[in-house]
């Protein structure tokens, strides 16, 4: 398949490359979290998760991270296919882990709700790759957002400013519902890993973000159903995303400097970094939906680890 550089399809493939660079890293980090979370007595689970993690991280470092934006359309198109061939098995493995955790066959610090969250993020990414290849996207149910039987418009974020009319409206509402749930769950996770009394200040802020994010899903659903209040929804979701991004970067920074009361929370610093990057992603999506300039990349550079 060949697309000319001035073709919309070439923009789509560049958009897909941007998503592969962002979500590819997210996908193998999820496997790092799973690997570190299983009961250390379960050597078998640890090693099988490790095998998957190494495979995806190696693929990312070799085939995604170094790819320049000047690549040909044929190369980018074929990379989306290769990436799907790596990410779909990783997604299915995450789904297997979730079932085993839920059935109590694998004892893990990752609860089924969080395991499900990791799968939904992977499905969002798979949807973006499929969209850029002209293939069917996942349903809303797969992404865990209301009105589940509809197919979600999972465009790469760079394409959002090119959308118009109903497509922009629906895509904006879907992104707001999807990321409000995702960040509501991040906030809930922060409430779980901070200590009552000693770290009450952080815990209470996280609890408030959890409440606001989940309320925002309902609000987005109402805007979709009534067709009114779109501009306010976009403005306020943008503000909420930016506030949560600032909170996430504060927690991330404090964790890396041991600057929270007692110096530690019960979560890995990489998880705080990961959440902060995803929060910046939400801000970026909202900027592009509302016609503002893209948000700068999050200040968490990536240095490939050679396996
Ligand atoms: Fe994630
Ligand atoms: Fe997440």
CATH architecture of the largest domain: Up-down Bundle
Main sheet record: none
Number of strands: 0
Low-confidence stretches: none
Helix content: 55-70%
Strand content: under 5%
Mean pLDDT: 95
**Can you list the ligands bound to this structure?**
fe (ii) ion
Summarize the helix and strand pattern as letters.
HHHHHHHHH
Shape descriptor: globular
CATH topology description of the largest domain: Ferritin
Can you identify the CATH superfamily of the largest domain? Protein of unknown function DUF2935
**In the CATH hierarchy, what is the class of the largest domain?**
Mainly Alpha
How many structurally independent domains?
2
- First-residue to last-residue Cα separation: 33 Å
Number of helices: 9
Describe the structure.
The protein folds into 2 domains: 1-145, Up-down Bundle (Ferritin); 163-302, Ferritin. The protein has helices at residues 8-37, 43-64, 73-102, 112-132, 140-143, 165-193, 200-226, 230-256, 269-289. By secondary structure, it is mainly α. One fe (ii) ion binds at residues 117, 121, 182, 186, 278.
């Amino acid at each position: 398949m060949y697309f000319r550089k001035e073709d919309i399809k070439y923009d789509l493939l560049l958009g897909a490359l941007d998503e592969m660079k962002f979500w590819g890293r997210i996908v193998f980090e999820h496997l790092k979290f799973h690997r570190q979370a299983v009961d250390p007595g379960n050597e078998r689970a640890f090693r099988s998760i490790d095998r998957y993690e190494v495979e995806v991280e190696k693929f990312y470092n070799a085939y995604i991270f170094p790819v320049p934006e000047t690549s040909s359309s044929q190369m980018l198109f074929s990379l989306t296919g290769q990436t799907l061939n790596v990410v779909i098995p990783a997604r299915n493995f995450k789904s297997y882990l979730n079932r085993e955790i839920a059935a109590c066959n694998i004892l893990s610090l990752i609860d089924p709700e969080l395991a499900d969250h990791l799968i939904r993020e992977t499905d969002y990414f798979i949807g973006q790759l499929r969209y850029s290849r002209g293939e069917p996207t996942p349903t809303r149910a797969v992404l865990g957002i209301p009105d589940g039987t509809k197919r979600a418009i999972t465009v790469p974020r760079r394409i959002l400013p090119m959308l118009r009319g109903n497509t922009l409206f629906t895509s904006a509402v879907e992104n707001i519902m999807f990321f409000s749930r995702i960040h509501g769950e991040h906030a809930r996770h922060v409430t779980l890993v901070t200590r009552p009394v000693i770290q009450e200040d952080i815990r209470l802020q996280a609890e408030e973000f959890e409440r606001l994010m989940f309320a925002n899903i309902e609000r987005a659903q109402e805007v979709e159903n009534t067709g009114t209040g779109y501009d306010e929804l976009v403005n306020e979701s943008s503000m909420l995303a930016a506030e949560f991004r600032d909170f996430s970067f504060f927690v991330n920074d404090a964790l890396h400097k041991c600057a929270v009361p007692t110096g530690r929370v019960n979560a890995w610093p990489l998880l705080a970094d990961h959440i902060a990057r995803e929060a910046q992603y939400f801000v970026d999506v909202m900027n592009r939906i509302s016609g503002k300039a893209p948000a700068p990349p999050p200040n968490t550079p990536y240095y490939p680890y050679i396996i």
